[in-house]
Every structure is written in structure tokens, then in C-alpha cells.
Amino acid sequence: MDIAAAPDLPPFRPRFPWLTGDLQTLANRLVPPLAGLGATSSERLRLPMDDGSGDTLLAVLDRPPQDSGGPVLILIHGLTGCESSAYMLNTARHFLTLGHPVLRLNLRGAGPSRPVCGDIYYAGRSQDFRAVLRLLPQELVARGLVAIGFSLGGNMLLKYLGEEGAAAPLKAAVTVCAPIDLSATCQYMLRARNWPYHRYIIAMMKREATGEGARLTAAERAAILGSRNVWEYDDRFIAPRHGFAGAEDYYEKNKALRFMPAIRTPTLVIASADDPWIPVSIYRSFPWQANAALVPLLPAGGGHVGFHTAGSAVPWHDRAIEHFIRGRSP
């Protein structure tokens, strides 16, 4: 599946030595992002949530050295990510070079938002994104908004778009390697071959959930620290904390697949067939032809939010996003 509107987008070819899906995935950790973004200015935005929690989401607004007048890009990180994740910095750098302002959003309790949030994000917390859009300065909204969600942030974004339908105030949207079926993704991650990934991720989740600022009961803290895997963490902490009956109830009610048929915003959906964390079968079985707003892009390689392509320091998914946005400019 490809982008019919961008025939000049080169196909994905892995860059040596990142020749497999696992190596593409690991490259984000093994290769540090380039220093600096090339922004003329970066400012901290504080986005107080209006749900009575007292929580405040933090974001960074980066402005380009030469402003193209194009839409503002809102970047949404994945599980245990934040504004300084390698993929967030790489995408921000590329689009700043193209003249777009970029907003790097920290979800509730993530990264710099952890000390000022008692609660924490989850895969379907679309109400927070809805609140963020209401709080953005009008000068940003007036330019047009394009949201880009990575991994878990992509699932949340697709859920939001389906909930809003034609009322979504976005010019376009993109997801990269989103776990659109949460239960299937969890089981895929728990395969024996993924134990190194899983051990790292569950340790990061526990550190994030119990970090400075977290409001936890003694029972919740014990549930977090005692969880042996992601499913147990979701079943014992995330689900009861946010009103779900258990992990499977949480997964079923928040998976993007339930909401994607109602999306009316032009949305590019990128996933790789060799993603070691997310099964490509959940993408291949979706009836894409039934919703013209959704554009699937499913290359054979790229790993999980990798797409380190031959002949370019710019990740291939960022080139694909560039083509998609350009194809929707007036």
C-alpha cells in the first residue's frame, strides 16, 4: 500500500547496518540524535488541564529559522517517551528546516510533565488532547494544525479523530507505528523473543508511573512495582485507575480500530511489516477502502518507529509525512 498522491516518494530501503526490523528499532537508542534543532526560538508552554485534577501538561514550541507560513505540527510521543525522544527530535528538526513551527507535547505525567501531574496518560486518553487543542494560542490555531502521533500516541490520536469525526479542528493527521489493536499488540510484545524489549519497557513504565509528582495510593504503588509485564501493569494499575474493569476491557474500549471508521480528517497511517512490537496483520485486515480519509502506508521494513533509510539522514517516515502534508496544501 502506498501514497497515490505522492508517486515521487522513494520506497523504503534500510540503511546499513540497520538491515532488520530489530536493528531499525534499536537504532533509536543506539544512535544519539543530532545536536540542536536549528530553531530560532523554543519556548515552554504550560497547558493546565480543565478536569479539576490540577495537572498541567508541558510542551515545547519550536519556531523555524525561516517561516514558510504552513501549518503547525503537533508531535505526540509514545509509551515512556517525551519531548526529547529521538524520533520527536528528528521529526521536529526536519519540519523546522521546511519552515513549520513544531509543538512537542508531553502527555500527562510524561517527561517534564511528570512533576506537575498527579495522574498519568494511557492509550485512549483523548480528552487530554482535546483540552490541549482548546488551550493553544490562537495565532497557532489560525495557521492550521497537523497532528503526528507516534506509537501509543498514535492510537490516542486515531481514537480522538474518530470521536470528533468531521468536527476535528485539524488540517491533517499522521500516525507512525500505532498499536491500533491494544490486546493483539500486548500479546505480540509478550512473545519470548521480545523479552529484552519488554524488560526495558516495563522498567521504564514503573519508573515513570512512580516518579516525582505521581499521586498514588499505597496499593497502586504496590501494583505498579509488583507487575511482571505490561499486561499486569495495565490490569492492576492503568485499568482500575481510569475506570476500566481490567486490562482487556481497557484494551477493547480504547483500541483505535473501533474509532477509525468514523475518521473524516485526512490521515496518513504508517506501519512497517517487520515491526517487532506491533503485528502488521492488524493493519492488513482493516477495510481501508471503506474510508477515503485514511491513507495506509505499510512498507516491508522500518521496524518500530525506525525507518532509517539508505541515502538519507532523515527518517523515511518523515519524508512520507512531508509528501502527505504537501499534497494537502492549498
What attributes does this structure have?
single chain, 330 residues, alpha/beta, Rossmann fold, 2 domains, 8-stranded mixed sheet, 12 helices, 13% strand, disordered N terminus
Quick structural summary:
With 330 residues, this protein is of the alpha/beta class.
Explain the layout of strands and helices.
Blueprint: H1 21-30, E1 41-48, E2 56-63, E3 72-76, H2 86-97, E4 102-105, H3 126-135, H4 138-141, E5 145-150, H5 152-164, E6 172-176, H6 182-189, H7 195-209, H8 218-226, H9 230-241, H10 247-254, E7 267-270, H11 281-284, E8 294-297, H12 316-326
Parallel strand pairs: 3-4, 3-5, 5-6, 6-7, 7-8
Antiparallel strand pairs: 1-2, 2-4
Helix pairs in contact: 3-5, 8-9, 9-10
Report on the structure:
The chain is α/β, with parallel strands linked by helices. It has 2 domains: 21-181 and 256-326, 3-Layer(aba) Sandwich (Rossmann fold), CATH 3.40.50; 190-254, no CATH class. It is 35% helix and 13% strand. The protein is built from 12 helices and 8 strands. The protein has an 8-stranded mixed beta sheet, sandwiched between helices. Helix 8 runs antiparallel to helix 9 and helix 9 (230-241) packs across helix 10. The two termini are 25 Å apart. Mean pLDDT is 95; it is low at 1-5.
Spell out the CATH superfamily of the largest domain. Alpha/Beta hydrolase fold, catalytic domain
| Side-by-side strand order of the widest sheet | 1-2-4-3-5-6-7-8
Q: Remind me, CATH topology of the largest domain?
A: Rossmann fold
Low-confidence region ranges? 1-5
**For this structure, what is the CATH class of the largest domain?**
Alpha Beta
CATH architectural designation of the largest domain: 3-Layer(aba) Sandwich
The number of helical elements comes to 12
Structural class label? alpha/beta
Which range best describes the helical content: under 10%, 10-25%, 25-40%, 40-55%, 55-70% or over 70%?
Answer: 25-40%
Content of β-strand: 5-15%
